[in-house]
Amino acid sequence: MVARVWSLMRFLIKGSVAGGAVYLVYDQDLLGPSDKSQAALRKAEEVVPPAMYQFSQYVCKQTGLQIPQLPPPPKLNFSFRDSWNSGIITVMSALSVAPSKACHYSRKGWDYIKERAK
């Protein structure tokens, strides 16, 4: 009985976390334009470290454990927008050219076999 309740609790917790993540993505409009995604990333970089520190202080106070101070997250001077878009463009262009390239290479292979068969 306890195992079933525990598995149900695990399922509900995982479902709640997944639902919260989907809601957060939708609420912050992270799947929209990349400008909004970058703004949300900057906002998270500002908000998450203080929140983690406050949570660790709360856990220390409640449990009496000493949690070492986490190092600050690295500063990224990398444009995710340009890289994301260029990667998507490269993949989509390769997929759009794939059928014609396959036809071209199969025709070249067929011509090569015809020449060798003569």
UniProtKB/TrEMBL annotation:
UniProt-listed PANTHER family: MICOS COMPLEX SUBUNIT MIC13
Pfam families according to UniProt: QIL1
Protein name: MICOS complex subunit MIC13
GO cellular component terms listed in the entry, alphabetical order: MICOS complex; mitochondrial crista junction; nucleoplasm
Entry keyword set: Membrane, Mitochondrion, Mitochondrion inner membrane, Transmembrane, Transmembrane helix
Chain's role: Component of the MICOS complex, a large protein complex of the mitochondrial inner membrane that plays crucial roles in the maintenance of crista junctions, inner membrane architecture, and formation of contact sites to the outer membrane.
Location relative to the cell: Mitochondrion inner membrane
Gene behind this protein: MICOS13
InterPro entries per record: Mic13 (IPR026769)
Entry keyword annotation includes Transmembrane: yes
Membrane topology classification: Single-pass membrane protein
Subunit structure: Component of the mitochondrial contact site and cristae organizing system (MICOS) complex.
Family stated for the protein in its record: Belongs to the MICOS complex subunit Mic13 family.
One example of a Gene Ontology biological process annotation: cristae formation
